[in-house]
Amino acid sequence: MNNPLVAGVDIGGSHISAALVDLDVRSVLPAFSVRKHINAQEDAASIIDVWCAAISAVFEARPYLPKRMGIAMPGPFDYEKGISFIKDQNKYESLYGLNVKDMMAERLGVSPDHIRLMNDAGCFLQGEVMGGAARGFKTAVGITLGTGLGTATFHHGVAKDANLWCAPFLDGMAEDYISARWLINTYRQVSGTTVDHVKGLVALIPSDPRIKAIFKDFGLNLAGFLAGFVRANNPEVIVIGGNIAKSAEWFLTHAEQALLAQSIDIPIRIARLGEDAHIMGAAGCWIENI
After folding, report:
1. What CATH number is given to the structural domain containing 231?
2. Residue-range definition of the domain harbouring residue 47
3. 18 and 85 in one domain?
4. pTM for the structure as a whole
5. Contacts of 186 by beta carbon, 8 Å cutoff, 6+ apart
6. Region 212-219 average pLDDT
7. Whether residue 209 has a cis bond before it, omega within 30° of 0
8. 90 is a domain residue
């Protein structure tokens, strides 16, 4: 590649973030970054317009650059052809069955070959391998802990969505026990109090010692899930991201100890790049050997 600058794009359920990425030094360039709110219930043309306006803004200061981009996109999606199959998720349903890649290419005035799409969970881990917590490792697994559970693997230079959120676990599926929903619901069951998010739960720890026990159980749930994930993939490192990772001090030690009790001694790293992991990983679609 003659020019190492590529746009990395992260599309979420309520926003789009985009920035230029220097693939030579594997760095996001914050001076060339944009974030826009999206109404994911709008019609297809309106959604595409917002996406493309954000991407175009990234290139405005460097108009001579070839417009190459990698996009982290939620699924289900045909990432090679560029067709959305997202439905029943209260977002982007107007795009169902449409060739999003071709629509964006036409709107941006570029060839569809200049747009590469990848699952957002895979982009998270790929970004952390390129320039974050997993840099220097040849194999890795990653999880994102938030409103839901994201999982990804990295082997032979390729990051993929592991799609284990719905894997059977305990009396339900993994996401039932390893998500903000479990923490908030468990606290409501023991206290009768409802909090809106995990940050609010952490704020109550000084006045309610029961929350520490809840986080301990969360760490044990996490370890139980990770044990099978690790044995199936034999990674050199585990990367944990997502908003709940910001509260790792309350559960990570319990998870590590539970894994050691099962003879699993693999480093667990908290993701370093934040949202930039998705941007970096998406731009990494243009690197042949990560």
Report:
1. 3.30.420.40
2. 5-123
3. yes
4. 0.87
5. 214, 217
6. 98
7. no
8. yes
